[in-house]
User: What shape does this take?
Amino acid sequence: MSDSKNSCIRCTVSQCQFNMVTEDYCTLRSISVGTHEADPKVPECTDCNSFVKRTGCCG
Ligand code: SF4
Assistant: This one.
């Protein structure tokens, strides 16, 4: 784990505790991506499985 910008992983999910927020980047050294579909066809079918909801802000 790391708390610095990973220039290789762009991400705009600021609700995730690993998002840099000040810039659209992830701070993890690596992430795991998966899908919730049996036959994914569009980007919306994929998920960042490393997502963890940010706590302590905005309910
Ligand atoms: S863990 Fe996934 S959702 Fe969270 S900031 Fe990194 S890439 Fe985005």
Q: What stands out?
A: The longest strand covers residues 33-35.
